[in-house]
């Protein structure tokens, strides 16, 4: 977006808004009836129609009222779709818009957004001072786009928890089988790197500002931990060995009674998994997903390793030691292409550990973006010099509250909502996210 002239930027924004809406419809009104859209498939999740109307309401708030100064379309529903007013478990009881009402509301908001776009000041030259910070390089439009993509990923987690006839495609467009790895881990020498960004136009507030971090040498896995490697821990009795777990982790293990990743089960001596309503053999070579932070941590202790810190993850993913420069993606600044990563809900599953050699980082680490979100050992907080922008409820209210940082995006993450600086976070006990991990050690 930084390099586009105003008209090209407008067109890009309009195209991307259209594309994300198609994605949202494909996860809601295109595939499920009214009863299923209004139902709560898990207490951890909202009814799908809540997510749908919520993204419309967010778009109204930010692109119409804030960015364009247009009068409110439906101010009376703001409260219903305010995530802080109503916890997920209580949302089915709210007087939600029905799916057809939600569809009409979204279409109306969108029509006004596209009308307003023509008259919004977007920069005619780099860093045009006439463009307000909210609009600079299409920032607020980028924020709204990323927000809807993030909710689409949340909707996919709801689909995974849903019981009933499968409705999502059973695509198996897998890449060429993974190559043999040259080594299981990569050593990253001690030294400084630049963490975060101050100039990525669509970076969200928690990715800012850029700051230098000095790290001692460490080693990090070349690929994410696979189902086979995780299964070895399960079969070795890892869930029964208190010494492998932190205090909070062992408490979670005992209270939850869990003994394997979510959606795994054993039948006649064979490990199977349920994926979007279909049962299949557990694929050995795929990165493990649906483990919580505590499980990731326990596996690492069992393997004599540890989780990487967030800074270690970002250095391995983004730093080019020869150029002494940061990359927006592990492979460079070129946007994700077919050959780089498993992103964008092209497949409804991770791809084998060791896939995507063209997506390797400068240090030779694979699959940093796409496939599975990766738990890090770092608690979510603001970088030095953090400033909430444009609102504290996106990031700041979650700081220093025990959330752990997840990095890298997964197979469901859209390329627009994914880069080496992007930060995700969740409670350490959550397993519905498409998350796995890789391990590290001091070198
Ligand atoms: C960044 C994925 C943790 O879903 O809670 C959606 C994104 N923020 N609506 C979330 C978000 C507001 C957020 N995560
Ligand atoms: Fe939201």
Automatic annotation (TrEMBL):
EC code(s) of this entry: 1.14.99.50
Entry annotated with the keyword ATP-binding: no
Keywords from the UniProt entry: Iron, Metal-binding, Monooxygenase, Oxidoreductase
Domain DinB-like, residue spans: 16-155
GO molecular function: gamma-glutamyl hercynylcysteine sulfoxide synthase activity; iron ion binding
Pfam families tied to this protein: DinB_2, FGE-sulfatase
Cofactor(s) listed in the protein's UniProt record: Fe(2+)
Descriptive protein name: Hercynine oxygenase
Lineage: Bacteria, Bacillati, Actinomycetota, Actinomycetes, Propionibacteriales
Organism: Nocardioides perillae
Sulfatase-modifying factor enzyme-like domain sequence ranges: 184-441
Pathway participation: Amino-acid biosynthesis; ergothioneine biosynthesis
Superkingdom assignment: Bacteria
UniProt-annotated binding residues for gamma-L-glutamyl-L-cysteine: 88-91, 426, 430
Binding annotation for Fe cation: 54, 147, 151
Function, as annotated: Catalyzes the oxidative sulfurization of hercynine (N-alpha,N-alpha,N-alpha-trimethyl-L-histidine) into hercynyl-gamma-L-glutamyl-L-cysteine sulfoxide, a step in the biosynthesis pathway of ergothioneine.
Recorded catalytic activity of this chain's protein: gamma-L-glutamyl-L-cysteine + hercynine + O2 = gamma-L-glutamyl-hercynylcysteine S-oxide + H2O
Family: Belongs to the EgtB family.
């Amino acid at each position: 977006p930084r390099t586009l002239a105003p008209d090209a930027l407008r067109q890009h924004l309009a195209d991307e808004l259209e594309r994300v809406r198609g994605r949202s419809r494909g996860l809601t009104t295109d595939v499920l009836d009214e009863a299923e859209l209004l139902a709560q498939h898990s207490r951890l999740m909202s009814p799908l129609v809540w997510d749908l109307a919520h993204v419309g309401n967010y778009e109204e708030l930010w692109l119409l009222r804030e960015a364009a100064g247009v009068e409110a379309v439906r101010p009376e529903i703001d409260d219903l779709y305010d995530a802080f007013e109503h916890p997920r478990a209580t949302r089915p009881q709210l007087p939600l818009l029905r799916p057809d009402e939600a569809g009409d509301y979204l279409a109306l908001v969108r029509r006004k957004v596209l009308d307003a776009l023509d008259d919004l000041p977007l920069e005619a030259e780099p860093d045009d001072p006439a463009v307000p910070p909210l609009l600079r390089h299409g920032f607020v439009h980028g924020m709204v786009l990323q927000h809807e993509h993030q909710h689409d990923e949340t909707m996919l987690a709801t689909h995974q928890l849903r019981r009933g006839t499968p409705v999502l495609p059973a695509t198996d467009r897998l890449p060429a089988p993974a190559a043999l790895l040259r080594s299981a881990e990569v050593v990253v020498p001690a030294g400084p790197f630049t963490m975060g960004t101050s100039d990525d136009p669509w970076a969200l507030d928690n990715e800012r500002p850029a700051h230098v971090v000095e790290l001692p040498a460490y080693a990090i896995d070349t690929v994410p931990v696979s189902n086979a490697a995780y299964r070895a821990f399960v079969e070795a009795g890892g869930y029964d060995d208190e010494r492998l777990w932190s205090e909070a982790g062992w408490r979670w293990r005992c209270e939850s009674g869990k003994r394997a990743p979510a959606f795994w089960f054993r039948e006649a001596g064979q490990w199977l998994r349920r994926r979007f309503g279909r049962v299949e053999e557990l694929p050995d070579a795929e990165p493990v997903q649906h483990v919580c932070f505590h499980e990731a941590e326990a596996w690492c202790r069992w393997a004599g390793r540890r989780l990487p810190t967030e800074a270690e993850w970002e250095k391995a993913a983004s730093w080019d030691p020869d150029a002494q420069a940061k990359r927006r993606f592990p492979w460079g600044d070129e946007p994700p292409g077919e050959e780089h990563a498993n992103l964008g809900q092209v497949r409804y599953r991770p791809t084998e550990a060791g896939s995507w050699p063209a997506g390797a980082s400068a240090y030779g680490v694979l699959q940093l973006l796409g496939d599975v979100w990766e738990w890090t050992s770092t608690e979510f907080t603001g970088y030095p010099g953090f400033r909430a922008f444009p609102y504290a409820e996106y990031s700041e209210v979650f700081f220093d509250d025990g959330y752990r940082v997840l990095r890298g995006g997964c197979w469901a993450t859209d390329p627009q909502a994914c880069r080496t600086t992007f930060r995700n976070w969740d409670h350490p006990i959550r397993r519905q996210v498409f998350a796995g991990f890789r391990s590290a050690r001091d070198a």
